[in-house]
Amino acid sequence: MLKAKRQVEFSLVLDSQMKKNRTFLFISVSSLALVALLAIQVYWILQTARMKEELFNEKANMVLSRTIEAIGNDETTCGQIQECVRADAMTGSTATLGKAETHTIDSLFNHFMRLYNFHIDYSFVVAKPEISASKGSGFIYNQRLDQVASLNWVELKLIFPDKKDYIMAEMGAPFIASVILILVVLAMFWRTVLSLMKEKKIAEHTTDFLNNMTHEFKTPLTNIALAGKMMVKDSNLRQEEKVKHYSGIILEENEKLRLQVEQVLSMTALERGEIPLEKTELDFHQLILDCTKCMGLQIENGKGELKLDLEANKFLISGDKTHLTNALCNLIDNGLKYANGKPVLHIQTSNQGQNLILNFSDQGIGIGKGYEQKVFEKFFRIPTGDVHNVKGFGLGLAYVKKIVELHGGSIELESEKGKGSKFTIRIPHV
Q1: Alpha carbons 325 and 337: distance in angstroms, whole number
Q2: Which phi-psi region, left, alpha or beta, contains residue 425 (left: φ > 0; alpha: ψ -120 to 50)?
Q3: Spatial separation of the C-alpha atoms in residues 295 and 297, rounded to whole Å
Q4: Pair 347, 306: CB distance under 8 Å
Q5: What domains are defined for the chain?
Q6: Residue 34: pLDDT over 70
Q7: Interatomic CA distance for residues 429 and 423, integer angstroms
Q8: pLDDT tens for residues 371-412?
Q9: Where are the beta strands (DSSP E) in 161-251?
Q10: Regarding beta strands 316-319 and 280-283, do their DSSP bridges make them parallel or antiparallel, or are they unpaired?
Q11: What stretch of H or E contains 426?
């Protein structure tokens, strides 16, 4: 029997591991495919930019060549440019053209740029070849004037200060569309992965919850069935003590079932907002005393110790008595269930600003690092042998957190494995 049980447990662990591996493989393959797609998209964007730049260079050189050819066919303009160059030969590397020459060259540039559907701001100079692009105010295209004007040591330089902006504007639509598509794909991919992980987590928690619920319901139902059978079979059933004994078992186990079902339904209803809080002005200290009195028998049975330090000066709050009582009882119940030997519980109150502070601490088994926030999630139970040996649905702390938040408060947990836990609850006082 034990061997078969171990085989079943091993099969479940192996199946769980295989599911995790499949999920990891799916995410890995999807990520690689997405990275490849993005790389291809970036490559085509760069290729488009390169093609646009090559087209720009081709147009610029064509405009410059046609302009120089037109200047070469105009002997008057050639002569005037040559005179300007000779006049500036000893004063600098860039020739100062007259208005007539400047207007002629500018007109030619305008004509050929319109001809090639080339609409961009430009400037031009006639200068010596050693004038480099770094001395200009933009991207420079240059060709020598020696063949058309016998000026073998000067060049006509065409300058585009806004070349990059022009290329970006030319490829604007595909570029913007590509960027948007990349961002959309990234967002959708990660949203899908997060949704997948969330759904997987919910499925695991739901499975654990159903398993826990099955075990929780099985014990009371078995006890009720046994008590019923004993009442039917027992020939001495007429004895009043036995009737009371079996009836008591049935009523006790039935009450356990009722409380368990009520706990699940209450949590679900709270999540949906179907249970409105009936807030009244409450004495929080008296509420604590009522809870400790209610849980006194359980504390006594567990041979536990409860210490109260109700030091808050302002202890009146606006709250729902029933739900706050249940929340405090849940904390005490947790302290008893997860005790490390003899339960030692400590409840302390104080004031901080506009808040009433409740510190609940125990010296139990504690909670390992990484689980401080997860314990407040529905159905979550710490995956250790000690925890799963304790009965429960994993709803207690989720219920406490929900009730505290509905009262405008907050709850924090400080814990260390093997050294107990401390819950700090803040609720606004009246």
Answers
A1: 18
A2: beta
A3: 6
A4: yes
A5: 2-170 (no CATH), 173-272 (1.10.287.130), 280-428 (3.30.565.10)
A6: yes
A7: 18
A8: 777 777 776 666 554 444 555 556 678 888 888 988 899 999
A9: none
A10: antiparallel
A11: strand 420-428
